[in-house]
Inverse folding.
């Protein structure tokens, strides 16, 4: 098990250091890269405790999709002018009390959960589905998700759909004067309705409407 | 401790057994690609170095090695150097889960197909990093194009993979191949195979979807500022990714290492032979497409991904699921 714990410490060290570097690095794009490193090391930790499905989902969803879009947006900003000055400027230090409050709340929430596991072991046994080592964790997640928690699962799906439609509605704008290509129009064009012979009078020209 | 070191060495041994043939194969595949391309256009292609020009890629690699690596002064040096390394590494690590036969696989993990999917979705980082770190307009435009393109086509590949998984009932690649013993999935899921192939072209930035490196508009896209060995690493990574997509296609649809003719002389040939043959078949299709199809416009590419492939593969997913459910063919209980 010693190799196992060495790897555990390596990955958690990388996770913590990169989490700090996300806020501490001067360059916004570097912060996003550290965030990606953080996601990757956390998914490695997931895989190490045997939750390989969650680890892979973490990689696919967060690293493969969310962080790409994140990076995409951050790269569009003019980074050379917007250097992230940690605690240096008055604007960013104005947010420190709020950030501290939120992190303290999250910290105590985590403490409550972990203390619940540590001091009341029966909490773990009180879950409706105990962990079965016979079946792979992909199957066990599927069994729980589509039986006991089907309504929660579907509600979360509907919430995501709502968020998606909301995002589309907020960013959707109809622009006038755009020339769009219509395959149907192109294919159904006939010669007699698109080509026309006109007698052009000298020095007067002819009006062409587009 | 000693046994850990033993395990480590045996793993390294296995890795070398995979990586060295793989890198050689990449060199040969570059030659094959250029050769097929040339034959379609009635040219000869590389035919000077070695028999049939087989050593052309080695000669090219030698040339790249002796070229100077130029790092632009205004670039972000760490990320600039990291980008080709990331591309190459990601292209190579995904081969760890590819089963060449029932026993010959380095890591037979439970979530093999998800691992492949995850690693191929990470592949975009090499390109984005290279394009951004170059601090130059054409690489940046190229990398932004490729980010949007790869993210879009990943979605349809994901749904196609779900189609196959519904028929298998397992995420393990060996199980996926073994489930095709009766019938290869290309027959019941043929439209999905076509969409997978086209999405794979877009995912690996191959023509007709090579907009990130469209030479007519963007010089060479994200590779513009790269030279020497770093450029060669991008190149190797790209071709290793193409081979990986071919391997993925042959595992998901063409029955992996299974023999196509299940009678005497052919069922004696070992599995890896058939697997490599299928990869080669798909690769020649890739090369042919490069030679015969003109490049897409960018909005057409996006339209194809989101408005045609995504709805169609979702529809096919519903059809597959309904069919399996109605005829009671769902692989329930396989664990």
């Amino acid at each position: 098990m010693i190799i196992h714990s060495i790897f555990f410490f390596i990955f958690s060290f990388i996770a913590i250091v990169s989490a700090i570097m996300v806020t501490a690095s001067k360059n916004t794009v570097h912060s996003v890269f550290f965030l990606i490193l953080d996601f990757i090391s956390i998914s490695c930790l997931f895989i190490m405790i045997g939750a390989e499905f969650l680890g892979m989902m973490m990689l696919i969803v967060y690293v493969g999709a969310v962080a790409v879009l994140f990076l995409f947006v951050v790269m569009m900003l003019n980074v050379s002018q917007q250097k992230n000055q940690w605690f240096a400027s008055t604007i960013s230090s104005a947010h420190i009390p709020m950030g501290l409050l939120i992190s303290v709340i999250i910290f105590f929430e985590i403490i409550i959960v972990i203390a619940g596991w540590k001091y009341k072991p029966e909490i773990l046994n009180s879950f409706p589905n105990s962990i079965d080592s016979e079946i792979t964790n992909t199957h066990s997640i599927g069994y729980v998700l589509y039986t006991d928690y089907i309504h929660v699962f579907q509600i979360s799906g509907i919430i995501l759909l709502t968020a998606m439609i909301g995002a589309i509605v907020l960013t959707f704008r109809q622009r006038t004067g755009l020339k769009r290509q219509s395959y149907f129009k192109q294919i159904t064009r006939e010669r007699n309705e698109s080509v026309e012979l006109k007698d052009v009078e000298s020095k007067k020209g002819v009006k062409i409407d587009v | 401790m000693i046994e850990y070191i033993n395990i480590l060495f045996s793993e390294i041994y296995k890795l070398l057994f995979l990586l060295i043939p793989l890198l050689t194969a990449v060199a040969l595949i570059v030659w094959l690609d250029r050769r097929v391309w040339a034959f379609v256009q009635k040219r000869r292609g590389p035919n000077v170095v070695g028999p049939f020009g087989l050593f052309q890629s080695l000669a090219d690699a030698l040339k790249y090695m002796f070229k100077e690596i130029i790092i632009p002064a205004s670039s972000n040096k760490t990320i600039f150097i990291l980008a080709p390394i990331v591309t190459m590494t990601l292209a190579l690590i995904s081969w760890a889960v590819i089963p060449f036969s029932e026993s010959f696989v380095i890591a037979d993990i439970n979530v093999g197909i998800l691992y492949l999917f995850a690693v191929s979705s990470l592949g975009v980082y090499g390109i984005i990093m290279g394009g951004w770190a170059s601090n130059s307009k054409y690489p940046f435009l190229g990398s932004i194009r490729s980010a949007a393109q790869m993210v879009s086509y990943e979605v349809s590949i994901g749904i196609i993979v779900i189609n196959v998984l519904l028929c298998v009932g397992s995420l393990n690649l060996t199980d996926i191949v073994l489930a095709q013993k009766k019938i290869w999935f290309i027959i019941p899921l043929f439209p999905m195979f076509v969409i997978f192939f086209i999405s794979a072209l877009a995912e690996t930035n191959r023509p007709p979807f090579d907009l990130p490196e469209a030479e007519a508009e963007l010089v060479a896209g994200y590779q513009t500022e790269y030279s020497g060995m770093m450029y060669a690493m991008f190149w190797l990574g790209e071709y290793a990714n193409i081979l990986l997509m071919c391997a993925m296609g042959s595992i998901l649809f063409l029955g992996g290492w299974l023999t196509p003719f299940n009678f005497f002389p052919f069922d004696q040939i070992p599995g890896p032979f058939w697997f490599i043959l299928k990869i080669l078949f798909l690769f020649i299709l890739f090369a042919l497409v490069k030679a015969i199809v003109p490049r897409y416009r960018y909005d057409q590419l996006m339209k194809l991904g989101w408005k045609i492939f995504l709805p169609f593969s979702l529809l096919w997913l519903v059809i597959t699921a309904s069919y399996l459910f109605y005829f009671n063919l769902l692989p329930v209980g396989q664990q």
User: Anything to note?
Assistant: Residues 129-173 of chain A form one domain. Chain A has ten helices and no strands.
